[in-house]
Specification:
The structure holds two protein chains of two kinds. By secondary structure, chain A is of the alpha+beta class. Helix content of chain A is 16%, strand content 40%. By secondary structure, chain B is mostly helical. In chain B, strand 3 and strand 4 (314-318) form a beta hairpin. In chain B, helix 6 packs parallel to helix 8, helix 7 crosses helix 16 (405-425) and helix 16 (405-425) packs across helix 17. Classes of the chains: A alpha+beta, B mainly alpha. At the A-B interface, strand 6, strand 10, helix 1 and helix 2 of A face helix 2, helix 4, helix 7 and helix 18 of B. Chain B: One of its GO terms (cellular component) is glycosylphosphatidylinositol-mannosyltransferase II complex. Chain B: It is found in: Endoplasmic reticulum membrane.
Chain lengths: 170, 480
């Protein structure tokens, strides 16, 4: 199962270098430092009660858009909803941490979504952030090229071997 | 024999191409396969999940519904360790049990222990599932060949029915379901048993009566000595197909049709002891699985669905079936629920099959009417309505595989075109041939060129769609 949404930094978001030192923290971090995509696996304990999870996105560039993707296996009966972004202002405490710079978070709710409900259901969720270029997440480029190549190959085969005509005369 | 050899090579070629496309597909959009394998096997260090063949091939086959089937098979092995959630009951446990039993028969009980046992077992059943699914698919194409001969031989020459049957079998291998039968999907089991049931029904029918002068007239009757074939074999086949995939309940329309035909010809005893009895068996099996078993498994603790009993004394008879309930709750199935703007691409994915199926029903009703295919037409109409207005419409590409009416339409039309071309080119003045040619010309008068255009468009679509669907599946991209 997959849920996606697009994020981008606000125009007035300050530019600064991430030092990555906010002390010990319970939330996860995805960093696009020198890369255009990053992925982490989180292991939340999910109950029937909705729990909100926060993940900090670091080293995003202004005027760029990114696709945040959460993937979990269908064997985990959970649902992820209310995906949104959140900015923690400088020096404001968040989950016991503070930073000199503003922090950009994504937040989403996780709930159990089938019967029977389990008290402490362990689930695994892949959360990834990918740069979007020309409206397409960069991790899909290879698949799109592969699809186009296959279509071209089938087209060429049809043109030179008349596949449909051969099928019809079987 | 030549046909079987040709069909086998064709099947192997198509499967080789499809699995090559899987192997070369670069990445998966939905990255949850690794999570599934970790959760099912506790292989935290990824040693076996990331081996060359697993990461480049087998892992790519674990997309969409195959996840549920894999979990169900592993659940069969250790039911106490793995929780089965109610939405998982939408997926056939007959299919998972079959793979589990075949694996047990081939490999015997596991001799390895601990973590390795889990991961090795998972990949072992994936391989068994793939082989079993493909063998069933291949056997079904041969069954469809015989079913087509039986269906068409009642109103055409042997040569024609054979030619149509050959085309149908080849088309079936490259039909739109083919893109999914690269993985552990339950469709093959259902269409195989649907075809077996239809063959045994066809064998039980008596469609011709010959008088003293040797003249034949078309009629509808059932051969008395075929009672076991009709009531036991057909019913049992349809029941297995329906238990495996609930949509096969539509096969019951064949029994309904036969009831009305025998009622019309006033053969009351035959009506009661053949189709009515068979229909009751199928309906009882449906109630047993979708109401009785589900009710006593979950109720009354479950609440919600359990509280919708219609009759107090028969509490398991609820307002909707359990299958319907979970489909509505977890997949938002319902009247026009899928008709939203963001689902337009899914309707486009389904459009070629919707068009060809509608055209096929018109072809066999108006242009080339035959009472013999009437129940198939009614099943097509009913199932189409359900899929378009209630379900996730794009699943038409695979769930319609147990009704071969569109393949019959294409094969029949192609044969007619070939025959006309052949007779135009040759100057054969054989009387019998002339009679047949005139017959075909007369029938062809009603066949507009639009049918040919639709067939041509559909075949071109299949040519591109089957490889594309294979890539979509390997890349864990929709449609599911």
């Amino acid at each position: 199962n997959t849920e996606t949404f697009l994020v981008s930094l606000p125009a007035d978001y300050p530019i600064f270098k991430y030092v990555g030192d906010v002390g010990a923290h319970d939330y996860h971090v995805l960093s696009l430092n020198n890369t255009n995509n990053d992925k982490i696996t989180i292991n939340p304990i999910v109950s029937a009660r909705t729990v909100t999870h926060y993940i900090e996105l670091q080293s995003l560039k202004k005027f760029e858009s990114y696709m945040v993707k959460t993937c979990w296996s269908a064997v985990s009966p959970i649902s992820i909803h209310n995906m949104d972004t959140m900015i923690v202002p400088p020096l404001q405490d968040f989950m016991g941490t503070t930073s000199e710079h503003p922090r950009f978070f994504i937040a989403f709710d996780i709930t159990q979504d089938s019967y029977p409900t389990i008290d402490m259901l362990e689930s695994l969720i892949n959360v990834s952030v990918t740069n979007v270029k020309l409206g397409i997440p960069v991790d899909l480029y290879s698949t799109i090229i592969y699809i186009l190549f296959t279509c071209g190959f089938v087209f060429a085969l049809e043109r030179y071997l008349n596949l449909v005509a051969r099928i019809t005369t079987i | 024999m030549v046909f079987i050899v040709k069909l086998t090579w064709f099947f192997l070629l198509i499967k080789a191409l499809q699995y090559s496309l899987v192997y070369f597909s670069p990445s998966q959009f939905d990255t949850s396969t690794e999570l599934l394998l970790k959760q099912l096997t506790n292989d935290t260090d990824h040693q076996l999940i990331d081996t060359y063949w697993n990461s480049n091939f087998y892992n790519k086959l674990l997309s969409w519904d195959s996840v549920f089937f894999l979990k169900a098979i592993v659940h069969e092995k250790s039911p106490n360790d793995i929780i089965k959630f109610e939405h998982e009951y939408a997926f056939s446990n007959i299919w998972s049990k079959l793979i589990y039993v075949i694996d047990l028969y081939i490999h015997g009980p596991l001799s390895i222990t601990g973590k390795d046992m889990d991961i090795n077992y998972v990949y072992r059943v994936i391989k068994v599932g793939l082989v079993v699914g493909n063998i069933i698919f291949y056997l079904s194409s041969i069954l469809l060949y015989y079913l087509t001969i039986l269906t068409f031989s009642n109103h055409s020459t042997d040569l024609k029915s054979k030619k149509i049957a050959e085309k149908t079998a080849f088309l079936f291998i490259i039909s739109s379901v083919s893109g999914f039968i690269i993985s552990i999907y339950s469709e093959p089991l259902s269409f195989m048993f649907a075809f077996i049931g239809l063959i045994t029904r066809e064998l039980s029918l008596n469609n011709r009566d010959t008088d003293k002068n040797g003249n034949t007239t078309e009629l509808f009757d059932l051969k008395l000595y075929c009672w076991p074939l009709y009531v036991i074999a057909t019913s049992l086949s349809f029941i297995i197909a329906m238990w495996n995939r609930t949509n096969c309940i539509f096969l019951g329309i064949y029994f309904l049709f036969d009831v009305f035909q025998l009622l019309y010809s006033r053969k009351f005893y035959k009506m009661i002891f053949f189709p009515l009895l068979s229909g009751i068996l199928l309906f009882t099996a449906f109630i047993y699985k979708e109401y009785y078993v589900a009710y006593y498994q979950f109720c009354p603790e479950r609440g919600e669905w359990c509280t919708t009993s219609i009759i107090d004394k028969v509490p398991f008879l609820t307002k909707q079936s359990f299958y319907n309930f979970i489909q509505t709750k977890y997949w938002n199935i319902g009247f026009l629920n899928y008709w939203t703007l963001n689902n337009i691409p899914n309707f486009l994915f389904a459009l070629p099959n919707i068009i060809i199926l509608i055209t096929a029903t018109i072809y066999f009703t108006k242009k080339y009417p035959t009472r013999h295919i009437t129940p198939t037409i009614w099943i097509t109409r009913c199932f189409l309505l359900v899929l378009i207005f209630f379900a996730h419409v794009q699943i038409i590409n695979r769930v319609f595989s147990f009704i071969p009416i569109h393949l019959w339409f294409i094969s029949d039309k192609l044969y007619r075109n070939e025959y006309l071309m052949f007779t135009k080119k040759t100057d054969v003045c054989h009387e019998k041939l002339e009679v047949e040619r005139d017959g075909i010309k007369n029938m062809n008068r009603f066949t507009s060129d639009s049918d040919d255009k639709i067939i041509k468009f559909y075949l071109y679509w299949l040519l591109f769609w089957v490889p594309l669907q294979t890539i979509f599946f390997a890349s864990f991209l929709p449609p599911a």
